Amino acid sequence: MSFRPFTSESYAQDDRPEAWRDVLAAIGLRPSGGHGFLDGHATASHRHAAGVALTRMAAGAQSVGPLAQASEDVPLALLPLEDGMVLKSAGGHRIVPVGHLVLLPRSGDWGIVFQRDMRAIVLSVTSEALHGRLSGKPRLGEPRVVPPSGLADVFARLLDATARTLDALSDAEWNAVAQSLVDLLLTLAHQLAASTSDAGSSATQAALLHRICQTIERRLDDPDLVPARVAQAEGISERYLQKLFESVGDNFTHYVRERRLQRAWADLSNPTEAHRSISEIAYAYGFGDSAHFSRAFRHRFGLPPREFRQQEAERATAQHGIIGQRGWPQEALVQLRAHQSVEACSSVARVSAVERTTAEREHHHLPVEASRVHWGYFSRSLPPQIEIASGDTITIETLTQHASDAPELMIAGDAAAESVFGWTKARKNVDRRGAGPMDASVFGRGAGEGFGVHICTGPVAVKDAQPGDVLEVRILDIVPRASRNPEHAGRVFGSSVAAWWGYHYSEFLGGPKPRESVTIYEILDDAEVPHARALYSYRWEPQTDPFGVVHTTYDYPGVPVAPATIKRRHAVLDGIRIPLRPHFGVIAVAPREVDFVDSVPPSYFGGNLDNWRLGKGATVYLPVSVPGALLSVGDPHAAQGDGELSGTAIECSMTGTFEVILHKKADLAGRPFADLSYPLIETETDWVLTGFSHPNYLAEFGAQGQSEVYAKSSLDLAMKDAFRKMRRFLMNVKGLSEDEAIALMSAAVDFGVTQVVDGNWGVHAILSKRLFENAP
To answer: Which strands sit side by side in the sheet containing 470-480, from one edge to the other?
Structure first.
């Protein structure tokens, strides 16, 4: 098969640069500028035929240049998929917008700089694909940037469509498409070959202009960003600054205005920015006058800002799909921006948990209430609810988001639960319930849009935690939260939902089809066999929330179920006792990529892991990616089977006690988590490695990640990720050869389906510690 996927998860940290160089070399590129994908995560989908190679890649910020191949005259075709790419060549320094093709000579003094993330499609054609058509090898002396019109637009669209379906094409289909791509590339290159002698600045000028453009990018919000101040900062005259821009056919004022308008365009088309007014966005990019901004925006993009925003919202609504669909609206997202930075923890002297005496370690308590939870999302911008030191213990109260399935059992009389779930005609106590926009009118559901459902307590900042460190979270105890309703005092209840996002939903045998059902359980702490037993169940009927919105499906978290609207069925699961497996479905640190991240799909930062092994006595190791780590806990479960097939576990409010230990990056060598890029679970007897369909979907898919992950998850991908991680663990932690690792996996490692309902499906690999008791 000519399709070959690449993921950095297969390699130890030290081996990744060489592996990435091999990926680039296959399409005629090489790293330049002294660094590769800085954050250590990269993916690539690669397909090749005779003389044709097409690759869709995603990685961190980096620079690339040509891998000299003097005998090849057919240029490379590169299509950037997101903003932030700069072309440097003898012809000057140029920002390349999304959707513009770049044709690159196989050799020469040029480079591509991806300032934020590398997300691009590259087509490489060699003479082998030309079948002797020497006249079909156009010679471009300099890189050419081609706007999306005419033949270039057709070619770019075919590149994008092909790259998205590389793994689905048969070999015969791929060969046919590949030849079409070759013909289109040759035709387009021939049209451009005659006009490649553009004037440009010297290499020194290009480097200076590149640095100036980077400065401008960082200061777009500065209303006083004027030529004189930039020139002064660079130690050059204002006249020379203007000449640098003139050398590439531009001027300072036009360039700054263009970048500001492009960034404003991105925010206005972004649903997660819908809560910000147009004036706020304009001011954030240096436009002090709203009327001036409106005129400039209309002149540049053909519509006033307000009409443009409405058009984008309507387009997103039309593409939103079925009512209640999880995931962000398809094609409606752009790269998210951070609105506020998380302050670094206080700069105290580094003291490890081991060095602190028992007396020095503190115990903390974080009770639950509306002001201490975030509902349905993780964010690097959340202010910490509390700060603790490495080695401290903390008790964290959590509530299940399903308490409203039986409010009289799980909310009534509980002041904390009533605070969190409080919702009247006038207001919701916790308004944002998801990672979407706050403006409910955009898609017509509610604040946060319901993309993300879990009530998380926190975040908890850990002193001195910095990106690259590892956070060890030990679960010391888990205690269920009893009902505070006087009629049920001391009893514990939970809920399970067979919902529209369940794996079963299209597989019903009997009617009505489809349907959703809720089962209410009592949790019994029997001394011999603690268990749950079903009290009653009911089918979901349309519920009208306090704001008057009718919910025909279980589509928004925390909608109170009115007892008069449902018909309870008793004697369900009669005589069956379900053994308890108390655990927290969500344990997460804040991700670094974007500001508001849906709580449903798990990823490298932890999150909605839904693995019942995360119970009392277990430990989870998480890679820290933002200052302070920002630990959050939620989604408490009384019991769950591997798979979580119907949509939920037995959801039950619980309180956990944790010991939190920070492992600094400089001290990780030789530890089992030294090369951690995923949540690693440790129990008394096993190591449990977590695999996902997409191990870092935010980095892999970029701005579209929170939609793409729902559309592209599969057990096959999750199994491959679990295999790759276990192979890496056995080779780099246990010292086995690749052949030994593969042999051991087949003979002694248990692979299991963690969950198939969380958008990013999971497969875990369990390695028994007993296997290595006698190993040298």
So the answer is: 363-366, 393-398, 654-663, 470-480, 619-623, 680-682, 686-692, 762-768, 750-755
